[in-house]
Amino acid sequence: MPTKMLKDFLDKNNVKYVTINHSLAYTAQEAAASAHIKGNELAKTVLIKIDGKLAMCVLPASNKVDFDLLEKSLGGKNARLANEVEFKDKFPECEVGAMPPFGNLYGLDVYAEESLAKDKEIAFNACSHTELVQMSYQDFERLAKPKMMKFSYHTKL
Prior knowledge:
By secondary structure, the protein is α+β, with helices and mostly antiparallel strands. It has five helices and ten strands.
């Protein structure tokens, strides 16, 4: 069951979603494999700092953030990976590293990799390392209102 905050948010906005339980997984690729979802169909949330301000990047689990490309897409702003100390208290109901891609619930800007829009559905961590939420991409975009841009590259395992 997603956390109360996430469940209430999705229910209040009339979103149809399913929860997928899987064995303990700490990386997005492990979670995708455990839940039998392709790595490019599972979205991971990466916390970044843009000119010192915390923000979320949402990208396929099989991709990595290209910080040079991200900075170019942001118009030359300085971007870097946030460290755990900088964000662990921002998501009190979530296990560290398992936050859902709704920065608007936490006062954060959301940047989504444009390739995510190609899929009809999106799956993501539900504040736990053992549970995912899967819903329509259209509903995700409607609720998260992400800034769409190209900022990542596909990796091979």
